[in-house]
Amino acid sequence: MITLEIRLMQPGDLPRIMEIEKKSFRSPWSERLFRQELTRNRRARYLVLQEGDLIIGYVGMWFTPGEIHITNLAVDPEYRRRGLASRLIKEVYRAAMEKKLFRITLEVRASNREARLLYRKEGFRETGTRPGYYSDNREDAVIMTRVLEGGEENGRGFNFRN
């Protein structure tokens, strides 16, 4: 029986991360950028999702005052439509609870309907745009936000508003 495991990303994971990154994004991050995030950014946490010994997805997040910002999330195309991206998002929720943070934000390409639907399903709302955000084609980014129940109102509580 093959089991799924979520663990911290390590520099040795980067060759496989780069494979998934290149399959998933029009303008993939560089291995150098991932390495800097893993070794120099104290506010960053990157997790991998493994099936057996194979990394099949990952999520990156930055801890900022009052919120977590999802930097990237990808699942290998061969493993999509199995709820794995949702499982990674739930790990971000766990990190928010652990750090007592009340909001989760991200940007997604305006044209990425699949990702926008996934995030909406996970309780995120479209809260703004960043015009011309993506350098490869100047496409707008849609800002999406999920607030923890009570986070805005009274600074307490860890149930997620849907």
Describe it for me?
This protein has four helices and seven strands, in the order E-H-H-E-E-E-H-E-H-E-E. The protein has one domain: 3-Layer(aba) Sandwich (Aminopeptidase), CATH 3.40.630. Strand 3 and strand 4 form a beta hairpin. It is about 30% helix and about 35% strand. The C terminus is likely disordered. With about 160 residues, it is of the alpha+beta class. The chain has a seven-stranded mixed β-sheet with strand order 1-2-3-4-5-7-6, with helices on both faces. About 25% of the residues are buried.
Total count of strands: 7
- According to CATH, the fold-level topology is Aminopeptidase
Strand content: 25-35%
- How many helices? The count is 4
Structural class label: alpha+beta
| Main sheet summary | 7 strands, mixed
- What is the name of the CATH superfamily? Gcn5-related N-acetyltransferase (GNAT)
Overall tally of domains: 1
Question: What is the typical, i.e. mean, pLDDT?
Answer: 90
Helix residue percentage: 25-40%
